[in-house]
Amino acid sequence: MAREQSNVAYQVMWNRMISVVEEQAQALVRTAFSTSVREAGDLSAGVYDTQGQMLAQAVTGTPGHVNAMADAVSHFIRRIGRQNIFEGDVYITNDPWEGTGHLHDITMVTPSFHKDVLVGFFACTAHIVDIGGRGFGADAASVYEEGLYIPIMKFADRGQVDQTLVRIVRGNVREPDQLIGDMYALATCNEIGHRRLIDMMTEFDLEDLDGIGTFILDNSRRATIERIAALPRKSAEGEMTVDGFDNPIMLKVRLTIEEGRITSDFTGSSGLDKKGINCPKVYAKAYACYALKCAIAPEIPNNAASLEPFVMEAPVNTIVNAVHPAPVALRHIVGHFVPDTVYNALDKIIPGVVPAEGAGCLCNFQVSLRPRTDVPAPGDAVRSEVLTFNSGGAGARPEHDGLNATAFPSGVMTMPIEATEHAGPVIIWRKELRPDSGGAGKQRGGLGQYMEVGAREGHEFDFQAMFDRIDHPARGRRGGAAGAATTIARDDGAAMRGKGKQYVPHGRKVILAFPGGAGYGDPKERPADLVKRDLARGYISAETAARAYGLSAEDIAGVEAAVRKGEMSA
To answer: Kind of enzyme, top EC level (predicted)?
Structure first.
């Protein structure tokens, strides 16, 4: 009976810890300076035991951050040294290989003390708009060009912030106030997590986290291994080709379900690229684990033990295991395609579970605005860096349509126009769903978006493109059709590349069409009422309704008439 009461209490504490780290994450959202954190949720937060094992993560955040950060705290402990860990300390890094994959992510770790004894750590990560160097983009040829490197070090030593570090950072970035503000926001959100943890420990009369930590990790490990045990012991191969920078990239994986674990071996994938789209293993591993966990054990909370049975391997200096000094600024472009590559293999082992391919990587771009240089600029023209996160369509699922303009696998939110335009003198002239971009299928792929981007009067800008799916759109599954490809051009017809920094003169706009998710299953099996609904909503055209789904001319005319009369809602 005592054991049952203890387990019930531990379950309550486990749920409480998840609430603690969610409050930690929300504190970061509320205090961050960067719109990428406040509006898009490009962050992570978690609590760790004294060995650096993640016990709980916030629901708010991205798997690339949190699953990579799961390995990071042990690096902090090793680099700082246990003998140098004191109450009031805060540690910092943006190391791509010991953090979350590129210099534009800052990770903060704070030791948590209770009654003068170290009981654990809080960690959080946020994407920052600028870190100096060439700026956020794929143009660099080595990590040294990509920005300021901050090794694992103390941001605060026993409560005293390192002002020398602050001055160095301020002197090397384009948006110093914003970046320093984000650093303090990261430190503050860890402090919020610490306070709530101590409240919980006091309430439950805990001296340490050993008992609850063991309960969390043992139960998570056991539950995950049970899910794996129910799967067939098989291997399968998957592959995917994506645009790359100048040349296409091949991702290959051999997925093997073994006793107690699943291995994703990326041997055979392309080698390093000359430009900054290479992916450190820590980030590729984060998304390989995430893909499998979503498909096999989605209801088990994320922690060190629930991730442990998912193993990722890749030869050194392949595109998914880039090592120093490879350029890695846009490592997310390759990393976000890892789940669909894994699913290409998993679908051959357990069919009917995983979705069709989606847009994959985020449809990000950064605009570097400045006063126009062709003629004298007005006095109110300013320099500004504006980063905006956008999404194409998600792939259709076995039983559901793909989500429109929704990021999978990153989970980052699409930023509202108002927040983007508030960040600097940029104008979003158009932002709307892209009809016919979702691949046809029994379940339709999610729609991409149209966007038109310009600058306020008196400004010119550099447009940093970070797109893919131009030459290799999302592929359908089980008979579903491909999603629409990405397109990019200037409004005067000048061609633009899918990646890299490109000059846009005063008065010109960038015209974008983001990719759609692919369809799942034979389009001819899609119920007619769903086809009519899509037509009424403007998700598909009359041509697509007839050609892809076989809807009759009479039915199409009926839908169009009903929409005109207001009898069918668009």
So the answer is: ligase
Handedness of CA 315, 62, 360, 105 (dihedral sign): negative
Residue 6: CB partners within 8 Å, gap ≥ 6?
none
- pTM metric for this prediction: 0.95
Distance CA 23, CA 30 (A): 10
Residues 361 and 482 in one domain: yes
First to last CA, the chain: 59
Do 317 and 192 sit in the same domain of this protein? no
pLDDT band of 1, cuts 50, 70, 90: very low
Same domain, 190 and 242: no
pLDDT tens per residue across span 538-561: 999 999 999 999 999 999 999 999
Instruction: Please check the confidence at residue 5 and state whether its pLDDT lies above 80.
Output: no
Residues 292-318 have a mean pLDDT of 96
Token digits of residue 134: 């060439």
- Number of domains present in the structure of the chain: 4
CA 81, distance to chain mean position in Å, is: 31
For residues 370 and 46, what is the distance between their CA atoms, to the nearest angstrom? 38
> Measuring CA to CA, how many Å separate 199 from each of 48, 196, 284, 483?
17, 5, 36, 50
In a domain, 172, yes or no: yes
Among residues 125, 118, 86, the alpha carbon closest in space to that of 104 is found at: 125
pLDDT digits (tens, 9 = 90+) for 341-355: 999 999 999 999 999
* Pairwise CA distance, residues 41 & 426, whole Å: 21
pLDDT digits (tens, 9 = 90+) for 409-460: 999 998 899 999 999 999 999 999 999 999 999 999 999 999 999 999 999 9
| Adjacent-strand bridge partners of 350 | none
Q: Which domain holds residue 549?
A: 527-570
Residue 332 has a pLDDT of 97
Question: Among 236, 345, 229, which residue's Cα sits nearest to residue 297?
Answer: 229
List Cα–Cα distances, 110 to 45, 60, 70, 162, 199, in angstroms. 11, 19, 14, 15, 17
Residue written as tokens 């002002």?
163
Q: Which two tokens stand for residue 296?
A: 């096999």
Asked if residue 171 and residue 106 are part of one domain, the reply reads: yes
Q: Are residues 191 and 88 in the same domain?
A: yes
Strands 310-313 and 261-265 turn out to be parallel
Element (H, E) at 190: helix 176-203
295, 324, 353 - which closes a domain: 353
Same domain, 499 and 542: no
What's the pLDDT score for residue 570? 54
Let me know whether 73 and 198 are in one domain.
yes
How many angstroms separate the CA atoms of 84 and 89, rounded?
A: 9
My answer on whether omega of the bond before 309 falls inside 30° of 0, hence cis, is no
Q: What mean pLDDT comes out for the span 227-231?
A: 97
